[in-house]
């Protein structure tokens, strides 16, 4: 059968191994999978007035059986992913270390970008051990040439005060003092009245002469008592804080959640939105 592009805004039902075989090579920008975690449980919910059964089995026996089930599906997903694409595998502690090893084999360890730790709940009673409240999401790419949009979230007032602890004498604005050097020897540059300054050994000035001149005119560069230039980064000029690999902002769907559709392992929409915004530029 001829391979065809996936239709947008469509749900394909059935075994993904069969459906993926019809999808052309390198045609997909972003893959997120939330497959069974090999948790050894059967998930079952009886939903609504008619008590419709919404369930799936998450028992594969040993971990080899689970990995053998997932591997051919991952190989198909790898094939359909564009060389610039991004891939996310959502899992938990049951098999995560085996999954990581399998993904390294398929994608290559150099293309492993992140293990995202998602805090799904505040507490969990797991008997005689520490309660497990996190899932892992492995983020891989197919090459080093891929799109990644930084995602920002707003800082709390407390975080702003902590990070932007200095106050500009003239304007009263909060700022932090940022180094103007980066590793790698570079040329001297002119810093206004201070003249030509040579960067410390083994470093270069991060900015172009034009950008330095502009920042000096805007009084955003100051000099330490040793005469080292530093940049004032003002809190009100930054977009927020870039999201790191520890995701604490949203919880798993609770029984009272408005989003809840009655599927036992449903994931919150904010989690998916974050993954999508890291990849897709919205217009
Ligand atoms: C952890 S749940 C996913 C829950 C889903 N992300 C949500 O938010 O509701 C795992 C799902 O993978 C499905 N699944 C398992 N093997 C599959 C396969 N070969 N092809 C397609 N889906 C499969 C199961 O039926 C189950 O719905």
Structure overview:
The protein has six helices and 17 strands. The strands form six sheets. Strands 1-4-6-5-17 form a five-stranded mixed β-sheet, sandwiched between helices. Strands 8-9-15-14 form a four-stranded antiparallel β-sheet. The two termini are 35 Å apart. The protein is elongated and about 75 Å long. Helix 2 packs parallel to helix 3. The model has no long low-confidence stretch (mean pLDDT 91). The protein has two domains: 16-151 and 243-279, Vaccinia Virus protein VP39 (Rossmann fold, 3-Layer(aba) Sandwich), CATH 3.40.50.150; 155-237, no CATH class. It has helices spanning 16-20, 63-80, 96-107, 157-163, 209-217, 269-279, and strands spanning 28-33, 41-47, 52-58, 81-91, 112-119, 134-141, 152-153, 166-167, 174-179, 181-183, 189-190, 196-197, 203-205, 221-223, 229-234, 241-242, 246-247. It has 283 residues and is of the alpha+beta class. The structure holds S-adenosylmethionine (SAM).
């Amino acid at each position: 059968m001829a391979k065809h592009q996936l239709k947008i805004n469509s749900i394909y039902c059935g075994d993904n191994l069969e459906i993926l075989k019809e999808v052309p090579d390198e045609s997909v920008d972003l893959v997120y999978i939330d497959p069974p975690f090999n948790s050894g449980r059967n998930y079952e919910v009886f939903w609504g007035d008619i008590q419709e059964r919404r369930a799936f089995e998450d028992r594969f026996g040993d971990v080899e059986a689970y990995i053998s089930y997932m591997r051919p599906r991952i190989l198909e997903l790898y094939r359909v992913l564009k060389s610039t694409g991004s891939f996310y595998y959502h899992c938990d502690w049951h098999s995560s270390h085996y999954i990581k090893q399998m993904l390294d084999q398929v994608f290559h360890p150099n293309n492993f970008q992140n293990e995202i730790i998602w805090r799904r709940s505040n507490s969990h009673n797991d008997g005689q051990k520490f309660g497990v409240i996190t899932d892992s999401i492995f983020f891989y790419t197919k090459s080093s040439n891929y799109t990644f949009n930084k995602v920002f979230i707003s800082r709390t007032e407390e975080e702003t005060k902590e990070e932007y602890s200095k106050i500009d004498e003239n304007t009263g604005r909060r700022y932090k003092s940022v180094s103007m050097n980066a590793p790698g020897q570079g040329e001297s540059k002119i810093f206004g009245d201070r003249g030509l300054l040579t960067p410390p050994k083994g470093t270069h000035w991060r900015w172009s002469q034009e950008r330095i001149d502009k920042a000096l005119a805007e009084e955003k560069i100051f000099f330490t008592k040793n005469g080292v230039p530093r940049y004032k980064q003002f809190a009100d000029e930054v977009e927020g804080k870039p999201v790191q690999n520890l995701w604490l902002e949203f919880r798993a769907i609770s029984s009272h959640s408005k989003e809840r559709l009655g599927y036992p392992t449903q994931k919150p929409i904010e989690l998916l939105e974050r993954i999508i915004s890291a990849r897709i530029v919205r217009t």
